[in-house]
């Protein structure tokens, strides 16, 4: 949104566009003559990294503010998990078996988006990494419900391009992993982690660390697929070793279905005891 009514100064768009009207001379063609903010080579210099970091923080934040989005439900999960109809092409039997979580992610997002629409799409908006697999399922479920969803893409050599279900004007692209992860959590009202690999675990453990250390408020934190997560990570061994506190195991819950997850999110504020929680 560009509103220059309060500024008495000539705006940057006008000067940038005016560059097309100037005479074509050696002086005007020289890189030094270009406006600094319109000079892509200049903006990509190492010395401009602090500016690029700031821009990646500002751009999505400003757009989400302009859309009135107050809170989000975060979906982390593997890019390689196929939808069930395509599971025969999965590279391993385990991935084929995990395809059921594509449907669970899609159904969960549909249910949460239906609730989000009660706030005119301002609260609990689905946000994913914008790519394939579980991310695609999350954006697809939001579309099934007739709502918007956010995609936070990252430039990678492979596997990462926006899926077709992300709301186009909420489809962002990042160079910096750190800023992308900040945007995942800045508006998070719940975090849901589906089976995945290094990227999923990186996102999961960073969010858990922020909550554990009090750098972020506690929110519903759900791990879909108890069998997967207890096989991949020996959570109790961490507590037994003393590298985490036993109370840290209270920061998250296991679920296996979309319905379980929605019910747990709705009751989270009053459900504090580990033994009373579903999935334990």
Throw out a few tags for this protein.
280 residues; 7-stranded parallel sheet; disordered C terminus
Structure report:
- With 280 residues, the protein is of the alpha/beta class.
- Helix content is 41%, strand content 11%.
- It has 12 helices and 7 strands.
- A 7-stranded parallel beta sheet has the order 4-3-2-1-5-6-7, sandwiched between helices.
- Helix 7 (134-144) links the parallel strand 2 and strand 3.
- The longest helix is centred in the N-terminal third of the chain and has 18 residues, at 49-66.
- The chain is elongated, with a radius of gyration of 22 Å.
Q: What's the pLDDT, averaged over the residues?
A: 92
**What order do the strands of the largest sheet run in, or round the barrel if closed?**
4-3-2-1-5-6-7
Number of helices: 12
Q: SSE string, helix = H, strand = E?
A: HHHHEHHEHEEHEHEHHEH
Layout: helices, strands, pairs:
Layout (H helix, E strand, L loop, with lengths): L11 H7 L7 H4 L10 H4 L5 H18 L5 E5 L16 H6 L1 H17 L8 E4 L5 H11 L5 E5 L16 E4 L2 H10 L1 E6 L4 H15 L8 E4 L1 H7 L2 H7 L11 E3 L2 H10 L13
Parallel strand pairs: 1-2, 1-5, 2-3, 3-4, 5-6, 6-7
Helix pairs in contact: 4-8, 6-7, 6-12
């Amino acid at each position: 949104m560009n509103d220059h009514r309060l500024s008495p100064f000539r705006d940057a768009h006008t000067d940038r566009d005016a560059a097309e009207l100037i005479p074509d001379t050696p002086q005007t063609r020289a890189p030094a003559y270009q406006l600094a903010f319109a000079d892509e080579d200049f903006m990509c210099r190492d010395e401009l990294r602090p500016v690029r970091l700031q821009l990646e923080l500002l751009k999505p934040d400003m757009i989400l503010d302009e859309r009135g989005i107050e809170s989000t439900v975060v979906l982390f999960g593997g890019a390689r998990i196929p939808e069930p109809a395509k599971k025969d092409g999965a590279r391993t039997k385990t991935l084929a078996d995990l395809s059921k979580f594509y449907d669970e992610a899609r159904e969960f997002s549909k249910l949460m988006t239906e609730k989000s629409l009660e706030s005119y799409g301002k609260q609990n908006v689905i946000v994913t990494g914008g790519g394939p697999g579980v991310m695609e399922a999350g954006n697809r479920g939001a579309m099934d419900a007739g709502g918007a969803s956010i995609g936070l893409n990252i430039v990678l050599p492979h596997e990462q391009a926006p899926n077709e279900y992300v709301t186009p004007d909420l489809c962002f692209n990042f160079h910096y992993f750190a800023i992308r992860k900040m945007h995942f959590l800045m508006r998070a009202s719940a975090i849901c982690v589906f089976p995945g690999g290094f990227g999923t675990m990186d996102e999961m453990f960073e969010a858990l660390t922020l909550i554990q250390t009090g750098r972020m408020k506690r929110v519903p934190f759900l791990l879909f697929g108890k069998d997967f997560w207890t096989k991949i990570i020996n959570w109790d061994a961490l507590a037994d070793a003393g590298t985490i506190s036993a109370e840290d195991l209270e920061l998250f819950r296991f679920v296996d279905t979309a319905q379980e997850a929605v019910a747990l999110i709705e009751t989270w504020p009053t459900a504090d005891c580990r033994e009373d929680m579903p999935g334990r």
